[in-house]
Amino acid sequence: MARPTIRDVAARAGVSLGTASRALSGNGSVRPATREAVLQAAKDLDYRVNSLARSLRSNHTASIGLLIPDVRNPYFSQLAHVVEQSALEHGVTTLLCNADERPEQMAMYVDVLRERRVDGVIVSPFADAEQALAGLDDDAIPTVFIDRRIPGSPTPSVTSDTSSALDEAIALMSRLGHRRVGFITGPRTTSTGIERIEQVATAADHHGVEVEWQEGDFHTESGHRAATSLLGSGVRAILASDAQTTEGALSAIVEQGIALGEGLHFIGFDGTPATALIRPSLTYVRQQVQEMAATAVDLLVRLRAGEIVTSVRLPSTLVLGGSARPAADHLTEERSCA
């Protein structure tokens, strides 16, 4: 029989997950009657607070900070949701901060998190933010990088390994008869931007494909602008580097009335609710967002408990849709690139 979770306690007491978490952690904002109901539910279910989570909370604020680059990006929105829910499973609340890809805004939020005395921070960094993040080290605040990392930093991280998926994407374009592929890059100020540029270059060289590079910045506008330029130069095979770039590129393609899978082959990144509406369906590189977020929380809890943790790399997959798929396709609908 599965061990009861804090969700079970909340459901039995008839309260929200957050209220149950605060009641079990002794937060003074919970009304006595509500706290008593939660404690009784925990007793009835024989619920036991996770020992690592307890050590995370002791003498601290039972809260962590999540510092992401751009809250508008659906990828980071999903990541933030899973981090929050995973933290609540440990009885810990999350303070969400949006850096907006600006070092000065990240520095401001680092100061806020230091003032709030959070028990740990999960952060997706970029190159110019290294100095801003130094304040976390100054206060000895446990920190885990997520999605991105700072090369050479000893901070543990949870990131995606997209090399195999991007190699498969370039191979697929080659199979479709393309010897020229447009790639809308991410910014070179991020580890993900740099890695994907290197991975696409390696794959293109391996498969004998020429790449037409268009610099982007992981924002919708740059995806639209880059795709418009590539289409204008006659490119009919395009690969995007993230979710927002994908949405921007698709909007340019739709505006020009070009049929996906016929007049153009397109491979995106990280399927979103918006791209799920595309017909034919989108071929895209899928990262393990839920696993990444949950793993980052687990590492942070263990780090705070005094354990030694190591960085984690999660494999990606190439999801095949109609936007880039051979007519006589013998591949499976979803092919793992692990």
Automatic annotation (TrEMBL):
* InterPro entries recorded: HTH_LacI (IPR000843), LacI/GalR-like_sensor (IPR046335), Lambda_DNA-bd_dom_sf (IPR010982), Peripla_BP_I (IPR028082)
Domain of life per record: Bacteria
A single Gene Ontology MF term assigned here is: DNA binding
Show where the HTH lacI-type domain sits.
Answer: 4-58
Keywords in alphabetical order? DNA-binding, Repressor, Transcription, Transcription regulation
Pfam families documented for this protein? LacI, Peripla_BP_3
- On whether DNA-binding is a keyword of this UniProt record, the answer is yes
Q: Which PANTHER family does UniProt cross-reference here? A: HTH-TYPE TRANSCRIPTIONAL REPRESSOR PURR-RELATED, LACI-RELATED TRANSCRIPTIONAL REPRESSOR
This protein's name: LacI family DNA-binding transcriptional regulator
Species in which this protein is naturally found: Brachybacterium epidermidis
